Amino acid sequence: MARLDRLVLFDVDGTLIKQWSGAPSQSGRLIKKYFNLDSSKIRLEGGGMTDRQIIVEKLKRLGLENPDADPRLAAALLGYTSITKEIMDEFGIEQVPGAERLVKRLIDEGISVGLLTGNTPGRARIKLEAVGLWNYFKIGAFGDATTKRSELVPIALRKAKEKTGISFRKSCVFILGDTVRDIMCAREAGTKSIAVATGKQTFDALAAESPDFVFRDFSNIEAMLLAVIGKM
Ligand SMILES: [Mg+2]
Question: Best exposed site among 70, 215, 222, 228 by fewest CB in 10 Å?
């Protein structure tokens, strides 16, 4: 039963679900609503950032002293769920092709799966429920908790221990995501990385960061499975 000690942690946007193009900035709307500030001129490459990090970073650039400790931040983060619902209603939401097949296959092989996402819990849930993926994931670390993505790894490992009773070794934990920040997160946390170019970043840009494994998409499930169950 050696395979049972593997844990694959999935990113959400660009990995499990397709990203919107042309949708209005949700963090911008929240900053307007909860802080009454206009962040429309701030350009952030938000891919792989946590939701908390995006709002905090924008507020810092708008001159707020210590936004991470601002009491309005918690309300703004909770506000992500309803604003995401509005965007979903307008722009729709779709799975990344093949992602569900991989999730199912990993579970069939006795491998634990979880979420490690920059999304707040409410936001991850509303998106994944809409495409029928939420119920696969009993373990999750979410982007309201921290401005530093790699700090989500110990949270995920603690939840994984609670759910499965297994203390996963970091060499048996795989961060699967579509951005350079997912790869950096794995490196900082001491886990393995599996990059997949199903989001906005190219295969070459991901490969340049030297992830442990990199794939163009989810078309070769067997190769992905081998990456996870292969020799450690
Ligand atoms: Mg992503």
Answer: 222
CA of 61 to the centre of ligand 1 (A): 23
CA 35 / ligand 1 centre spacing (Å)? 26
Rounded average pLDDT over 166-193 = 97
64 C-alpha vs ligand 1 centroid, how far in Å?
A: 27
**Cα 40 vs. chain centroid, distance in angstroms?**
24
CATH class of 2-19+94-229: alpha beta
Q: How far is the CA of 17 from the centre of ligand 1 (A)?
A: 9
The burial class, CB within 10 Å (0-12 / 13-18 / 19+), for 44 is middle
Say yes or no to pLDDT of 23 above 90. Answer: no
pLDDT (average), residues 7-34: 94
Structure tokens at 114: 């979880």
Environment of ion ligand 1 (residues, CB < 5 A): 11, 13-14, 178
